[in-house]
Amino acid sequence: MNESQIDLAAAVALGSIGDEDQRAVAELLDTDDPVLRADFTQEVQQTREVLAQLASTVATAPPPALRDRLLAAISTDPAPSTAIHHSPTAFRQGNGRSTPSLRD
Known about the structure:
Layout: H1 3-14, H2 19-29, H3 34-55, H4 64-76, E1 91-93, E2 98-100
Antiparallel strand pairs: 1-2
């Protein structure tokens, strides 16, 4: 199977295919290549199984000490240096070269 066929199998497993994709699925399933048909069907099934596992997972709260460790790490990390921005009026055009303006 190529990358687009794998993507198509994922779309089928998610149930999110449009008319054009449905035609492509029909062509895949009507192909004379039994290996391609089997691979496509297997890919759809495996993707559905993974999606079912993901849907059944339960989020767990992080350990209470994690927040304290993160805040401590952030407070000891030096702040990133700030970029120096020049105002667009800081330079004036003269003879084709930019020179600093004495006004700014």
